[in-house]
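Record minuted for completeness.

…
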Amino acid sequence: MNEASHTNRFDLVGSVAVVVGGTGVLGGAIAEGLAQHGASVAVLGRNRQRGEARAALIANASGRAAFVPADASDPESLRAAHKAVENELGTCDVLVNAAGGNDPRASVHATQRFEDIPLDAWNDVVASNLAAGALLPTQEFGPAMVELGRGSVINIASVAAHVPVSGGVTYSAAKAAVLNLTQFLAREWAADGVRVNSITPGFFPADQNSRLLFNDDGTLTERGEQIIGATPAGRFGEAEELVGAAGFLASHAASRFVTGIDVRVDGGFLSSTI
């Protein structure tokens, strides 16, 4: 039986997945999901308490996981994390880049015009989502996959990368660059057996956007209501709903001829017009 006819195409047994930003809500759900498919998972991030808790959840569910502290904006920190992953779990063949963030100072809103965005805020958001969110971890873990002759890099983009969401100009620009980098690397590494794809989440409640979406009493803000109204599914996404796309892209058996694509998990947001 050849690999293409494998009965369980989402089986990740034998794979080692590194989830950068696995301490967050979305990255953490993806880490758990990949472990459920059989991968050994390294949860990378700066928050030790959250990282160890996530790794413990995976281990308690009969998975294999380790928290590895790492600052995705620091090449030396990533290099040390890479060595730790290899020592504890083995050679990484799945990399999920789920780090990133935003800063209200880099947005356009009622009290700030586009021309007043501070350069340092712009640079911080671009660095968080492009450098730390894709470039640096892939520079660290990608070459080992090329040498291995097999691997999957999954970048986390955003609906804001496809259409400029009102106000979030810097975040949108940075995530659009992530999509471009994804396609570049897909072409660059295809002959080496390394696939590079992205996932575009719609609006998923997480730490960085909860105040934007919800009032203190749990009701929707005006912005939250606008987003729900523009999403044909009529709701926000749930973190676990990213797992299917991640499992598909991570699995060599399921998607070995898939590279350079973006999988939208957005409840139809990007299909909606007035």
